Structures are given as structure tokens and as C-alpha cells.
Amino acid sequence: MADSAAPPRREALVELYEQASTCTLCPLSEGRTKVVFGAGNADAELMFVGEAPGAEEDRRGLPFVGRAGGLLNELLAGIGLERDDTFVANVLKCRPPGNRDPQPIEIETCRPYLERQIELIEPKVICTLGNFSTKLLTGSPTGITRVRGIAQQHLLGGRPVTLLPLFHPAAGLRTPAVKETLREDFKLIPALIEQPPHEKVEVEPEPAPAEERDSGRASAEPDQLGFFG
Ligand code: URA
User: Fold this and answer.
1) Which of 171, 132, 170, 134 is closest to 149 using CA atoms?
2) What Rg value do the Cα atoms of the chain yield, rounded?
3) Using 50, 70 and 90 to split pLDDT, how confident is the model at 90?
4) Distance from the CA of 52 to the center of ligand 1, in angstroms?
5) Which of 64, 132, 144, 168 maximizes ligand 1 atoms within 8 Å of its Cβ, making it the mutation to test the pocket?
6) CB-defined site of ligand 1, < 6 Å
7) Per the domain annotation, does 213 fall within a domain?
8) Residue 139 is part of which domain span?
9) Per-residue model confidence as pLDDT tens digits over 108-127
10) I want to staple 141 with a disulfide (CB 3.0 to 4.6 A). Which of 72, 177, 212, 220 is the partner?
11) From the CA of 4, how far away is ligand 1's center (Å)?
């Protein structure tokens, strides 16, 4: 993306962050400690979308800072990347009580924040982590086990984006074979970033029917802003 677009993009992202920070659109706002807007490089070509903040994320206001975040960092290091090369967000910006699955109404209510983040960051590649983000952004009810590691082309935020569904890192923490699959699937990322955007893309996804969303969940300190790079 052109450098000249960077300052307005960052400003718009800060504005969106401020809006999300005081969001009371769904009842999750009542139980949260901090809104976890997302963090990283506003100019990133690579974006990760997880599910929802856990306890540590809720406490610190930052995404993927618990054990699953540790594995995410390790997987990135394995392909020569770091968190600062990416922008990391979640489907939900507030923690569901007891880390329960996101509810369809919460996903729908929070969805415009994620859509606007994608529109502003303009990533070339989005890796969805786990079932919820995969189903939301592919617009398909097909579960992660069937689609992981296979890149798809979509129109997201008005632009062609390569979408790579991946297992959730928390699942990798629980099951060594899943961690190994994650390592293998991460190796696909560098080439996907390098490849030019596809002309032929799927239409912008509609939400998958609520009853078909299956569970795959393994689940900012003020300085969240500093994480926009
Ligand atoms: N799991 C997620 O899906 N997101 C986080 O930010 C942390 C754990």
C-alpha cells in the first residue's frame, strides 16, 4: 500500500480504537476489564484474527498475550517474522465470561469493528485462527479441520485478500499434532504475502448461520495505541 496513505490510516484506526474502548453495544461490556481492540502494525501486510480475549488479554487490554500468544510468537519466529510485522485482532473485542464461546449476537454486534480494521489496515493476507474467525470471514459454515492450510481468495474490506484458515494456537497447546500442523501451515504464509492479489475473488462473505457455527475455541494497557506501529 502507498506510504502516503499511512498517516490517515493510523489516525482512523486510533479513532476506531477510541470508539471501541467505550463500546457498550452488547452485555460483554459489563464484565470486561479492558476492551481488546487489537494491536500491531497498522501497515501490516499480514493480519491474524483470533476468537476473543482470554483472562490475561482482558487484564492487559492486548490480544494474544497469554500462553496461546506465546505459541503464536513462536510460530511467527519459525518463519522469520515477529508480532510487529503483523496486526492481531479478534472476532470479539471483549472477553466472554469464563471464556465461553462467542454468541451469534455478540459476533454480529462486534463485526463492524473487525470489518473496519480490515478496511483500514488493508492486509494482503489474513490468517484466521480457529473456527469462529474462519467461519465469519469465509462466510461458510465449513469447520476449521476441513479448510485449514488451504488459502482462499475473498473480497474483504472492499479489496481482494488471501485468507488462510489455521488452527487456533490454543488447540496447538493442547495437542502436539495440532501444533505440528500449525508449524507446517505457517510455512505457507511468506509465499502468500509475496504473491500478487488475485483478480478473481469470492464475494464479500455473509455471516454463517448461527446454528452451524461449531466450537473450535481453545479457547490495551494504554499502550495498545503504541502497538499500531
Ligand atoms: N485467544 C484468542 O482467540 N484471542 C486472544 O486474544 C487470546 C486467546
Assistant:
1) 134
2) 16
3) very high
4) 5
5) 64
6) 50-54, 57, 63-64, 66, 68, 90, 170, 219
7) no
8) 36-194
9) 999 999 999 999 999 999 99
10) 212
11) 32
- 207 has a pLDDT exceeding 90: no
> What is the CA angle 53-90-209, rounded to 5?
110
Q: What mean pLDDT value characterizes the chain? A: 89
pLDDT by residue (tens digit) across 130-174? 999 999 999 999 999 999 999 999 999 999 999 999 999 999 999
What pLDDT was estimated at residue 144? 98
Residue 205 lies in a domain: no
Confidence of residue 196 (pLDDT cuts 50, 70, 90): confident
What separation, in Å, do the N-terminal and C-terminal C-alpha atoms of the chain show? Answer: 15
Residue 214 is assigned to a structural domain of this protein: no
Q: Whose CA is nearest to atom 7 of ligand 1?
A: 64
User: Which helix (H) or strand (E) segment is 90 a member of?
Assistant: strand 86-90
Distance between Cα 51 and ligand 1 center (Å)? 6
- CA 191 to ligand 1 center in whole angstroms: 25
- Rounded Cα gap, residues 70 and 170, in angstroms: 10
Q: Of the residues 62, 95, 219, 224, which should be mutated to test ligand 1's pocket, given the most ligand atoms within 8 Å of the CB?
A: 219
User: What one-letter code names the amino acid at 22?
Assistant: T
